[in-house]
């Protein structure tokens, strides 16, 4: 179990509830409860290509954080998101990613704990936050 104290979930409804709890605990302080973020500082999760696009990019951001300039919905954001990989379990990351990808007006497929575990293992040696350029260069592999 991680920061929100959630176990692996058995249903889509449970995953949504767990994702909402994780979002409220670790994401909403910066991205706001509405998901609209803070202009120029904390990007929105609402209609964000980083949230609804390649799930691998979103998982990498949650696991290792992101720093520097990042274009979101046509606006440049420059800041730092901390890494949550050490505090959140694979199930929690999958739940919060799924929650963001299916709420706030977003419509994107769910993320599984197995996908998170695979990406966590693949990038286990990474010790620094990602940059937008690195994430874009990585592509979907």
Describe the structure in your own words.
The structure is a single chain. The protein is mainly alpha-helical. The chain has one domain (12-138): Cytochrome Bc1 Complex, Chain D, domain 2, CATH 1.10.760.10. The chain contains six helices and two strands; from the N terminus they run αααββααα.
Quick overview:
The chain has 141 residues and is mostly helical.
Layout of helices and strands:
Layout: H1 12-31, H2 49-52, H3 55-64, E1 66-72, E2 75-81, H4 90-102, H5 113-122, H6 132-138
Antiparallel strand pairs: 1-2
| Overall 3D form | globular
Mean pLDDT: 90
Q: Say which CATH homologous superfamily is assigned.
A: Cytochrome c-like domain
Q: Within the CATH hierarchy, at the fold level, what is the topology? A: Cytochrome Bc1 Complex, Chain D, domain 2
Q: Strand arrangement, largest sheet?
A: 1-2
> Residue ranges: pLDDT <50 for 5 or more in a row?
none
